[in-house]
Design goal:
rod-shaped; 28 helices; alpha+beta
């Protein structure tokens, strides 16, 4: 059945010294019988047991199992061999503490893939006299009971070989005898090999004794039952001469032996009977050993899932704090990975369209931008949007309706009855845009017109905001205020601007949600409240959106192109110092001549091309600059004394009685007493004007006309500088405080050519193709264009900005997550290593009773998988929470109406995969190392 041929096994000590545990050992075992392997410690008997049980491997020789050589066996073959043919009984019992008695016994059977029945287990317990202990834990058993459980575990799978390593070593003598009686009984139908140093038990119970000395078999004897029939110390038999132990041969014995030898024709064996062999035993005759005829067939082990899971859980909880810390750090890294991928998955086009749909956009706006800066830093600024740009945009977005929006300046002050004591944030100062559309274009939009569209240049359609404003405040007419209760009340009324009387023929609803601005009506600037959150959005939509978008008749803008531009910005500089700023211009010849006062040095009839007239407001600034405060105030005081002498003396007697007349006031106090104190009692608007005029007359009569550099701005982006403009006078015309007046020649230079300039482009979203929308977003995102027509919408702008921010932060978050994942993997490695170390002996026991390396991998794979799943679940939950916080914050602050970031199946799969990869990569080394260990090393916790 089992034969060892020339087996050699050498171990290296910690000091590097080689020790031969087995030295060319050959022995044959039969299919049944109780064989004791005896010898002193270190003689090689335990090594022999480990090799026979497949717990260790031999260096030289061969082990034959049922006529099958094991020289080519791999570790998995030895695993299957133990699982199929071998049952182990250990000195220290080696019962798995996490399982009950019945589970320990059933595990060996389950490893063979057999069903474990309670009846079979209970029958075995009864047979071994431990009936009723099946549900107990091992720590509730005595030593003898534990050893019987170990025997039951070995027997349950009906092995052909039972290997017992010092089975009585930890038992009292009575229990030990009971155990050997049991093994003796079991040996009747199987091979039982017992490793023992107890020669007394060996003589009593062994069918065969194999004794080792220094790694070699000293003797191998089998019990025959033949007792010695003679007391003679020297016996002559057909097998040779036998001499009793410790007997000293006499001279007579030698003569007898020599005579015996002379009569022999063949070599004669002379054997001294050892003092350790016993009556009834004789040298083993291997030819008499019965060999098994059973075919060599192995059963691969399969550790049950429940048992594997139980061991995984037991290993998992042995160091809870380290487990929690490992899971926490891994979860943080997974949350970062999940969040990074969620952010990376952000698509500006998709999210912009989602915002577009959820907010029910009825229109979009396009503006023209030019790229500035250099390759390392750049920016885009708004520039003129002309007819060429509009045409290129129309070609690019050919599936959409594009409407040009023209500039307009219309103040509401003249038409709305404000309560100036209660100004509100809803007050609109002016409107800035208008369009020209026909009925066909209107049908291609979502806009609705109550009334009709203009049919000539003297008709206008006002926006819904205008209607709601006059309905809220009241509509100012020339001689009365009209209450506007419905749209028909406003239709037919007149507006005046750009030197035209315009009849309101309709009201257009651009489908803007004006209700969101209602809160602006109930609070104002002077009420001590904070500016409402949506105020600036309201102002922006009013000035650059559809809230204030009028409709004029076709050709209205064309008619304006031939009118001199009355709004040309001008900035005055004196010696590079900015002095004044004006916003409107006209001809000097168009100003009422009676309101103009000139410097005495200027001849009004001979004005030059670069001579200009300014408003008295700015003249006052020039006077203060040129005269200084002291001279300015001295002129005022002299004028007051000359004009109001008596009145000032009366006030002086009342408030400053130490002086008899104003002439007695010291020069250093005249400005303070007369100019500030006394003048304060008599000052009014008329007297102030007279005093100021006195200063002006002095200034104009004593000063030369100053020259300036003036920068004229025909539009917001280009200036037209002129050096050497001379201010020749000022006008008291109060129609426009910020006006300046130039010669006819300069006025013609400032003439704006008939270029078509648009404020922006209005895009109808009715029946808009997704293709065009994507093009608009792509155009807005493209940073490589010198000029581009981009979407003008704060929500979509934010999506684009966010995409750029996300792309820029991806690398940072990714590598941060990688670093954290590295720490997490290191922690996982140390945790699994600790878990493996904690479970080494249990693994060794499992291997001994038949479990394979694959089963060991299964245990720790489940442990790793459980940790990975916990990490993944927490990682996904954390990613969802972080994403929700980001979304909630941005939705609240930006009023987007949609989520920005979405956690989907992609992120769940990614987080789970990363968690599993981290788990298995970090656990691979310790687990594979343990799984590849020889079972004996695992048992010994090496």
């Amino acid at each position: 059945m089992l034969e060892l041929r020339n087996i050699g096994k050498t171990y290296a000590t910690k000091k590097g010294v080689s020790v031969k545990a087995l030295d060319n050992v050959s022995v044959v075992f039969g299919k049944t019988g109780l064989v004791f392997v005896t010898g002193k410690s270190g003689s090689g008997k335990s090594t022999l047991l480990n090799l026979i049980g497949g717990l260790d491997t031999y260096d030289t020789g061969d082990m034959i199992i049922n006529q099958k050589s094991s020289q080519d066996f791999k570790q998995k073959d030895f695993d299957s061999y133990r699982n199929t043919m071998v049952g182990f009984i250990f000195q220290e019992y080696n019962i798995l503490e996490e399982f009950s008695v019945a589970q320990n016994i059933g595990l060996a059977l389950a490893l063979q893939g057999q069903k474990v029945s309670d009846e079979a287990v209970n029958d075995l317990l009864k047979k071994l006299d431990i009936e009723g202990l099946g549900n107990r834990s091992p720590n509730e058993l005595s030593g003898g009971q534990k050893q019987r459980v170990a025997i039951a575990r070995a027997l349950v799978k009906n092995p052909q070989i039972i290997l017992a390593d010092e089975p009585t070593g930890a038992l009292d003598s009575n229990t030990g005898i009971q155990l050997l009686e049991t093994l003796k009984s079991l040996s009747k139908d199987r091979l039982v090999i017992v490793i023992s140093h107890d020669l007394e038990f060996a003589r009593k119970y062994a069918d065969r004794i194999v004794h080792f000395v220094d790694g070699k078999i000293a003797y191998d004897i089998t019990y025959t039952g033949e007792e010695s029939q003679s007391d003679e110390p020297v016996k002559f038999t057909d097998k040779g001469i036998t001499i009793e132990p410790k007997y000293q041969l006499t001279a007579e014995d030698l003569k007898v032996i020599n005579a015996y030898l002379q009569n022999q024709t063949k070599p004669t064996h002379i054997k001294k009977i050892s003092d350790q062999t016993y009556s009834g035993f004789s040298t083993t005759d291997t030819s008499d050993i019965e060999q098994s005829s059973e075919p060599f067939k192995l059963v691969k082990s399969k550790l049950p899932f429940k048992a594997s899971l139980s061991m995984s859980l037991n290993a998992l909880i042995h160091k809870k704090i380290r487990l929690v810390f490992t899971i926490l750090l891994t979860t943080i890294s997974l949350v970062m990975f999940g969040s990074v991928d969620t952010l990376s998955n952000f698509n500006a086009e998709d999210k912009s369209y989602e915002v577009f749909e959820k907010n029910n956009y009825n229109y979009l706006m396009l503006k023209n931008y030019k790229r500035g800066g250099d390759s390392s830093w750049y920016y885009y600024t708004e520039v003129n949007l002309d007819e060429e740009v509009f045409q290129s945009a129309s070609d690019l977005y050919s599936n959409s309706i594009l409407i040009p929006v023209y500039p307009l300046s219309l103040s509401l002050d003249a038409y709305i009855k404000y309560d100036w004591n209660k100004p509100s944030f809803y007050d609109a100062y002016y409107y800035t845009s208008f369009i020209e559309i026909d009925n066909e274009t209107l049908l291609g939009t979502n806009f609705e017109v109550t009334g009709r569209l203009p049919q000539n240049l003297n008709e206008v359609v006002v926006p819904m905001h205008f209607y709601q404003s006059v309905a809220y405040y009241g509509f100012n007419k020339e001689d009365s205020v009209k209450d506007i209760n419905e749209m028909d009340d406003l239709i037919g009324e007149m507006l005046y601007f750009n030197e035209r009387n315009m009849k309101i023929v309709g009201i257009i609803d651009y489908k803007d949600d004006l209700s969101v601005y209602e809160e602006l009506k109930v609070s104002g600037w002077n009420q001590g409240v904070d500016t409402p959150q949506n105020y600036y959005k309201y102002v922006n939509r009013l000035r650059e959106g559809t809230l204030g978008l009028f409709i004029f008749g076709e050709g209205y803008y064309e008619s304006l192109r031939h009118v001199k531009n009355s709004r040309v910005e001008a900035v005055f500089y004196l010696e590079n110092e900015r002095m004044h700023q004006f916003s409107t211009v006209s001809k000097i010849t168009d100003v009422d001549a009676e309101t103009i006062k000139y410097f005495d040095s200027v001849d009004p009839l001979n004005l030059g091309e670069n001579d200009i007239v300014i408003n008295e407001y700015h003249l006052g600034n020039m006077i203060h600059r040129d005269l200084g405060d002291y001279q300015y105030n001295t002129i005022i005081v002299d004028f007051l004394v000359e004009t109001y002498y008596d009145e000032l003396n009366l006030l002086l007697a009342e408030h400053f009685p130490m002086y008899e007349t104003v002439d007695d006031i010291p020069d250093e106090d005249r400005i303070a007493i007369i100019g500030y104190e006394l003048y304060g009692y008599i000052s009014d608007a008329e007297r102030y004007t007279k005093a100021f005029n006195a200063v002006v007359e002095f200034y104009l009569s004593t000063s030369e006309a100053p020259s300036f550099q003036v920068d004229f701005f025909k539009d917001y982006y280009t200036n037209y500088p002129i050096i050497g403009l001379r201010v020749v006078g000022f006008t008291s015309d109060e129609d426009n405080v910020y006006a300046y007046h130039v010669s006819n020649e300069l006025y013609d230079e400032l003439y704006i050519e008939g270029e078509i300039i648009y404020n922006f482009i209005l895009v109808s979203t009715k029946d808009m193709k997704r293709e065009d929308f994507n093009k608009m977003v792509q155009q807005s995102m493209n940073k490589g264009l010198l000029y581009k027509v981009s979407l003008q919408d704060e929500n979509i702008d934010y999506m684009i900005m966010l995409s750029e921010t996300v792309y820029g932060m991806q690398q940072f978050f990714f590598w941060t997550a990688v670093i954290l994942a590295g720490f997490a993997a290191l922690l996982m490695f140390t945790f699994i290593s600790s878990s493996v170390s904690h479970s080494k002996q249990e693994i060794g026991i499992l291997r001994a009773i038949g479990a394979s390396s694959r089963d060991v991998l299964g245990i720790f794979s489940k442990e790793t998988l459980m940790i990975s799943i916990m990490n993944a679940v927490l990682g996904v939950i954390g990613t969802v929470i972080i994403t929700k916080l980001l979304n909630d914050s941005m939705i609240y602050n930006l009023n987007l109406g949609t989520t920005l970031f979405d956690v989907g199946i992609r992120q769940i799969i990614l987080v789970t995969l990363i968690s599993i990869v981290i788990g298995y990569l970090s656990s691979a080394l310790p687990v594979l190392k343990t799984a590849s260990k020889k079972p004996i090393d695992a048992i010994k916790n090496k």
